[in-house]
Amino acid sequence: MSFEDCLIDNFKEKLMDLSQTVAETGKPVILYTTLLDEVSDYGEQELAIVNEDFVVIQVITFGGYVPIAIQHQRVFTFDEFSTWIFKRSNNLFVQCFGTLDDSLISIR
Fold this sequence. Notes:
- This protein is of the alpha+beta class.
- It is 47% helix and 34% strand.
- It contains 3 helices and 4 strands; from the N terminus they run αββββαα.
- The longest helix is centred in the N-terminal third of the chain and has 23 residues.
- The radius of gyration is 15 Å and the shape is globular.
């Protein structure tokens, strides 16, 4: 098993642990938010939310003459998301890892 595979597996296990807590509390956890585009009074933001069974990524537009709206959603299994976020961005992967650790520590 490579180091990368080990990181991805550890990340997935933490997601699964957090999902059990989400199932018990009924409160989803925001894994990350990132601003994708911002022009004066208009913007797009991406949110990743952990629920009981999936990670849901939503792209939300806001501001200006555009009403707040969800532009699109992607739904990932924990396995799919772990691999996807690792390949997408090292910084975002590390940020998510930290959020998972913080969330798990705060609920125990």
